[in-house]
Specification:
Layout lengths: L1 E4 L7 H18 L7 H4 L4 E4 L5 E2 L2 E2 L5 E8 L5 H18 L11 E8 L5 E2 L2 E2 L2 H9 L2 H21 L3
Parallel strand pairs: 1-2, 5-6
Antiparallel strand pairs: 1-5, 3-4, 7-8
Helix pairs in contact: 1-3, 4-5
Length: 163
């Protein structure tokens, strides 16, 4: 899931559409899916938000500010892939401006967010990472094994990071 905040008129409409597709591809790749995987693409949603005004230090911003919240099930991202998502999304947003403004990475904030396993809901039920990986691979045992390894690695990584 992507929540993308783009101020009205900040990008040309076709550049914006291309950006939303590119952001979807970036997140799918980070999660380990091929962007051409129709089953996974069908559940890769983007919610476009239109802030009327963004304020910086209490005053209206003089240039567009962008926010992208990439939400994935627990175990889909590690430190490296989170950093890659932040860098790739930032570059994609700035590319979409087509050189119309200074290329300022400080105007793009990206928040990769993981939802704990057992708390991802869709289709009226809880969907675990094993369910998602089974759908992606077509094999329940392989899906379960991939999910168990990814979740264990994610929890071990989190345990090393102080609050």
């Amino acid at each position: 899931m992507l929540d993308v905040y783009i101020p009205e008129g900040a990008l040309r409409p076709d550049a914006e559409r291309a950006l939303l597709t590119r952001l979807t591809d970036i997140l799918m790749i980070a999660e380990g899916f091929e962007p051409t995987n129709a089953a996974m693409r069908a559940v890769s949603w983007v919610f476009l938000h239109r802030p009327a005004t963004t304020f910086v230090a209490g005053s209206p911003a003089t240039a567009p500010r962008y926010k992208v919240v990439a939400t994935v099930p627990e175990g889909q991202l590690d430190d490296l892939s989170r950093a890659e998502v932040v860098a790739a999304v930032t570059e994609a947003v700035l590319d979409a401006e087509e050189g119309k403004r200074p290329r300022d990475k400080g105007r793009v904030w990206v928040f990769p967010t993981e939802i704990p396993d057992g708390r991802w809901g869709g289709n009226g039920r809880i969907t675990r990472l094993a369910d998602i990986m089974t759908r992606a691979t077509g094999d329940a045992e392989e899906g379960r094994n991939i999910a168990e390894k990814r979740i264990a690695a994610s929890r071990a990584e989190r345990a090393r990071i102080p609050d």
